[in-house]
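Chapter review: from sequence to fold.
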Amino acid sequence: MEMLRDREARETIKKIVSGRILFDELMSCHASMGVGGKVDLLVFPENVEELTGLVSHFAKNSIPFLPVGNCTNLIVRDGGFRGALISLKGLQKVEVKGGGKETVLIYAEAGVSLSQIVDLSIRESLSGVEFCAGIPGSVGGGVKMNAGAYGRELKDVIKSVSLFNGEGEVKEIPGEALPFEYRNLGIPEGTTITGTTLYLSRGRKEEIQKRVSEILEVRKGKHPLDHRNAGSVFKNLPGYSAGQIIDELGIKGTRVGDAQVSEKHGNFIVNLGNAKASDVISLIEIVRQRVMGERGIALDTEVKIVGEDEDA
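The token string follows.
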């Protein structure tokens, strides 16, 4: 985007943010899948104040932006992203907000990893987020996609979510007032999640640790952790997993370039070394067409695909 190439505009951004500011940055260096073209700007605000200042600046100047977490379920097309990606990794505040005899409230900013929350829950003997064990994303990304596993979702333990819409103050919205759905929180475009308050239950440390260890062991056995990937590619269907359908149709092992449907788990696409975003996206379409053609089922993606094609 031309405005982000202007020297004065770049200096303005440097005055707002004290964290890293990367111009014309290859997203293949940041996305967990290891693919992706150049983004005009990848910026890392260090706190909520810098984040809100940055979002307000972009909104005022009509600069397209997208908040991102650990980029674990993000694919930027090979032509890159025209605008700014705002990494929330610098938002690392975690605090106990209150507690009673049976429950404890934990506030975590958007950049805190879900694994940090799981580790905290073990240390403090708090139950409720064991299902997050092994999910590689951040709190912000996890809330936006309503991350879940083993019959549980983040919405089940969310008391409130802190949102910023580009104007005014950050607002804390009660969980029950938010439009959570399967693998998504339907907030307006341009709204940024700055943090969330979780409602956890007091429990026995040994039992919590045991459950977490069991989940991590299952993930290790089922998931292709030896290759770069973006986690589950497709959303599951009621009573039926996308991976199971892909397995039954014999699609596992299918390749486009160095992108391959994992032979270990059908709902994962792995980068065997030098895959491009176009390889991954083409493979996603091949899988979707096979499933639609043979089962009449439309698979929706869990991964988020943004940006422009290389020849755009």
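Two observations follow directly from the output. The chain has seven helices and 20 strands. The chain has three domains: 2-87, 94-220, 224-306.
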